[in-house]
Design brief:
The complex is a heterodimer of chains A (515) and B (336).
Chain A (H helix, E strand, L loop, with lengths): L1 H15 L4 H6 E6 L15 H10 L4 E3 L7 E3 L2 E6 L5 E6 L13 H14 L1 H7 L2 E8 L2 E6 L6 H4 L25 E7 L3 E6 L12 E6 L3 H9 L5 E2 L10 H8 L5 E5 L4 E6 L11 H10 L2 H8 L4 E3 L14 H5 L5 H10 L7 E8 L2 H16 L2 E8 L1 H10 L4 E6 L6 H9 L16 H12 L3 H18 L2 E7 L1 E5 L3 E2 L16 E2 L5
Parallel strand pairs in A: 1-10, 15-16, 15-17
Antiparallel strand pairs in A: 2-3, 4-5, 5-7, 6-7, 8-9, 9-10, 11-19, 12-19, 13-17, 13-18, 14-18, 20-21
Helix pairs in contact in A: 4-5, 9-12, 15-16, 16-17
Chain B lengths: L1 H28 L4 H6 L5 H10 L6 H13 L13 H36 L4 H15 L2 H15 L22 H7 L3 H38 L2 H8 L4 H31 L1 H6 L5 H11 L2 H29 L1 H7 L1
Helix pairs in contact in B: 1-14, 5-6, 5-9, 5-11, 6-9, 7-9, 8-9, 9-11, 10-11, 11-14, 13-14, 14-15
The chains are: A alpha+beta (515), B mainly alpha (336).
Chain lengths: 515, 336
């Protein structure tokens, strides 16, 4: 009994010495499912945790403007202009910006940083190899010459991989210095990452003193920590492969946790192998039949709980280039039409047997099972085979499938990120493509759309592309995940970026005592 | 003693090489490509092949293995494909957290398991014995994550006494010196933070230690029951020694021999096998690190952690053999 009393007394002592309210209000605790993979933009490969931390440690030249994130604004650059032929990007830097080690940011530092990223980051290699040279034209001005017209280049400069670091004096393996709103204080692998406010930040000091990224791999532990105040924010980092429908339902009636949703540019679809003449899905009528067979409303609102949006074609509705006319012409659930098309293609009921390959995980399982039922309704026997990510991707690249569930998360905010990689026939045998057969007219249109500098003309070209692609039914476009962020009510000032789905915490603050 | 140690160390070398060869072959035959796993779902083929080349994954297997052994001979376990950091550094960063948890869990198991086994053996078939047997059965059979959730629900949610997960509160910061959070906070003159770290340790220690405590209790009970029937116990009793002295000094020393092996093996097992406990409590140990390496096809980390675990396993096994000698002088003399 005495020991129990002693234990309780010690607990009381500990609670008396708990951190004060001010420290708690100045600290934002963010739950993430895994460690950041490197905090140097030049080694970042669009891994989400590291990308988000980088956006808070460093600055990019340009950034997507909140709250809609549908246009670029200057960040380190005060002005920028793309030449009429789309081959030259001129930039003027803001005066008075300093790296966290106190040295001034100038055009030469930006030149060194971009050259280093192009040299070291394999993820940027395909895009940055278009850079012919970066010329410093003044202390705060520079010009980037491109080998080909590339209006998408400005969007690439808003990516974490293109964030500006101080290269001068940087030793191999050393964490580079940035200009960002926070500076790195401590990193404990698999445990936590602590960032402290940069009081000399050029946009003014952040409202929070400290950010703590806590690595909590287990989803139920993250939920408990959020519910009982151990963490303040659970950002949408872990949701690229899952939809936290259970969490949304659990927190729907809970005043201690708020759910913030935003549209994303993620697309989930049923892929056809468009590059195999021997496949049953080589027949356009079969592909159309399968597109008519799917109950889109049931999938979006029933199976996925309304936390996703319907995708009507090759671009999600959140893309600036999405053509609203696609909604009117999109496929809808019409089993009779599907049966008729299958009969015309020579497949009476139960004659067509396919294997549906898909990823593992609850979301993919429920989607696969639902589609299996939809296809059974029109007489297609589907067997489901799920495997882990690496194995499925290898099967996809090798072309060993007829139909497969897949998804696309564009790594930069431009329709080009969906269209070129997905549908250009010269990339058909690589990863993340729809394995499109050669079509000079379509390929020419894709190249033209990515190269035209005029934004309105680009939009027209992407409208044409959406219509033409839909006529070929290269996939059954299913849904787009909403980005879902969970937060404690006292956390204010958050804005969710749609592509990439990362959060900057410069403007975020906590108000009042925790409920 | 020296020749015994020498023999053990010599036999360790071929075992380690065999372990390395096995893990090297197995890892590379796992389906999937590390470059694909590392670059994520939206990487193009160009990006993937550039990374494969950078990581030298396009080299023949025997070239990769030869290069690995060459580096290993110089004490270099290679670089993590995921983080780009030396594997040895990455393991060293996580080992203190694992040791902190494993050592405490083992101590807890000994402090609870041995007395439980003794009491059960001394009151054999009594109500107390039955109760302790049920308790130890529950300890052995209850999955770690179930016990973890039960403890979190009781101590964190309902009573609010203990933190749900993590190693320390995010509001306390200190620079690592020993890597042991409690000790580092004490060295930094932050007793409140040290106490906070202790509170964070309690539930993971209970979860990890409860299984071993139950196993130890069962072993000690059964071994003690056997020992209590031996002639030397009758002799001790005939000499008029008290029951606790008979059991605690004479019988227990013999009964502990099988328990020492079990404790040693479980201790070594916990060093790398506490993955569930580490995951549920967000504990930054080596087990989770190894699991991530499997998911990411991070071959150097997989090989490095396996090598370190194999070494630790052999070290613990050696210590167990030495402890046998301490517990049983006959074995010590035989060893000589």
């Amino acid at each position: 009994m005495r020991r129990l009393a002693l234990f309780l007394a010690l607990l009381c002592l500990a609670s008396c010495q708990a951190p004060d309210d001010k420290a708690q209000l100045q600290t934002l605790v963010i739950a993430v499912p895994s460690d950041p993979v490197g905090l140097d933009p030049a080694t970042n490969k669009a891994e989400p945790v590291g990308s988000e931390v980088i956006l808070n440690l460093f600055d990019t030249l340009l950034a997507w403007a909140p709250p809609a994130f549908d246009h670029l604004e200057g960040r380190l650059a005060s002005q920028w202009a793309l030449s009429a032929d789309g081959r030259q990007l001129s930039l003027t830097l803001r005066p008075g910006v300093r790296f966290q080690d106190g040295t001034a940011l100038d055009a030469q530092a930006v030149q060194q940083s971009l050259n280093r990223a192009a040299r070291l980051n394999p993820f940027l290699a395909a895009s940055f190899r278009a850079i012919q040279r970066i010329e410093v034209t003044g202390p705060l001005t520079l010009r980037i010459d491109l080998a080909e017209p590339m209006p998408t280049f400005a969007a690439l400069l808003a990516q974490p991989q293109a964030a500006i670091v101080k290269v001068a004096g940087l030793r191999p393996g050393q964490q580079p210095s940035g200009t960002g709103a926070f500076r790195l204080r401590r990193y404990s692998p698999d445990n936590e990452l602590i960032l402290e406010r940069n009081d000399d930040y050029f946009r003014g000091p952040a409202r929070l003193q400290r950010l703590v990224y806590r690595v909590i791999p287990d989803a139920s532990t993250r939920r408990l920590e959020l519910r009982y105040g151990g963490v303040d924010v659970s950002p949408p980092i872990s949701q690229l492969a899952t939809i936290p429908t259970d969490d949304i339902q659990a927190f729907a009636e809970d005043h201690k946790v708020q759910v913030v949703q935003a549209r994303s540019q993620i697309i989930r679809q049923l892929d056809f192998n468009n590059d195999n003449p021997d496949s049953p899905v080589h027949d356009l009528r079969v592909r159309q039949a399968m597109a008519w067979a799917v109950d889109y409303d049931g999938l979006v609102n029933g199976i996925l709980g309304g936390v996703v949006e319907r995708v009507y074609g090759p671009l999600p509705t959140a893309s600036w280039a999405f053509d609203p006319a696609m909604q009117a012409t999109a496929f809808h659930h019409d089993p009779a039409k599907a049966r008729q098309l299958l009969a015309e293609a020579g497949y009476p009921p139960s004659r067509l047997k396919l294997t549906l390959y898909g990823f593992q995980g609850a979301m993919w399982t429920s989607v696969a099972t639902f589609l299996q039922a939809n296809f059974a309704e029109v007489g297609i026997d589907v067997r489901i085979e799920q495997s882990e990510f690496s194995l499925l991707r290898a099967r996809h690249v090798a072309g060993h499938f007829d139909i497969a569930l897949d998804g696309r998360q564009p790594w930069y905010n431009d329709p080009d990120a969906h269209i070129t990689q997905g549908y250009l026939s010269s990339l058909a045998r690589s990863a993340m493509t729809f394995r499109m057969p050669p079509d000079p007219a379509l390929d020419g249109l894709i190249v033209q759309a990515r190269s035209v500098a005029d934004a309105s003309l680009r939009k027209q070209l992407y409208s044409q592309l959406q219509q033409r692609l839909m006529a070929r039914v290269p996939a059954v476009y299913l849904f787009s995940n909403n980005l879902i962020l969970f937060k404690r009510p006292q956390v204010q000032g958050l804005a969710l970026n749609s592509a990439p789905p990362l959060v900057e915490y410069w403007s975020v603050y906590k108000e009042g005592p925790a409920p | 003693m020296n020749s015994f140690l020498g023999r053990r160390l010599l036999t360790a070398v071929p075992v380690l090489v065999l372990v390395l060869l096995m893990i090297f072959t197995l890892a590379r035959n796992l389906p999937g490509d590390p470059a694909v796993a590392l670059l994520g779902p939206d990487a193009s083929e160009q990006q993937i092949s550039a990374l494969r080349s950078q990581l030298q994954l396009d080299q023949p297997l025997y070239v990769q293995f030869g290069a690995y052994l060459g580096r290993l001979a110089h004490g270099d376990l290679g670089m993590s494909l995921k983080t780009g950091q030396p594997v040895l550094t990455e393991i060293a960063r996580r080992l203190p957290a694992t040791l902190e948890l494993t050592v405490l869990a083992t101590l807890l198991a000994l402090l609870v398991g041995i007395p439980m086994g003794m009491v059960a053996a001394m009151r054999v078939d009594s109500l107390l014995d039955q109760a302790l047997r049920v308790l130890s059965l529950a300890g052995v059979s209850m999955p770690a994550f179930v016990l973890a959730l039960m403890l979190q629900t009781l101590f964190s949610i309902h009573l609010g006494w203990l933190p749900i997960s993590g190693r320390t509160s995010p509001y306390y910061i200190t620079e690592p010196v020993t890597g042991l959070a409690t000790l580092d906070f004490l060295l930094a003159g932050q007793p409140a933070a040290a106490w906070d770290a202790c509170l964070h340790l309690l539930m993971p220690t209970l979860v990890l230690g409860s299984f071993l405590a139950a196993v130890v209790a069962r072993y000690v009970r059964n071994s003690l029951l056997e020992a209590l029937g031996e002639p030397f116990v009758r002799t001790a009793r005939a000499k008029g020694l008290g029951e606790w002295r008979v059991v605690g000094v004479h019988a227990l020393r013999n009964a502990l021999l099988p328990a020492i092996t079990v404790i040693g093996l479980h201790f070594a097992d916990m060093l790398g096998g506490a993955i569930l406990t580490e995951t549920v409590f967000a504990w930054p140990g080596v087990g989770r690190f190894m699991l991530d390496a499997i998911h990411n096809r991070d071959y150097p980390v997989l090989q490095g952690t396996t090598l370190v675990f194999a070494l630790l396993y052999m070290l613990v096994s050696l210590l167990v053999d030495l402890l046998y000698g301490v517990a049983d002088p006959r074995l010590r003399h035989r060893g000589h």
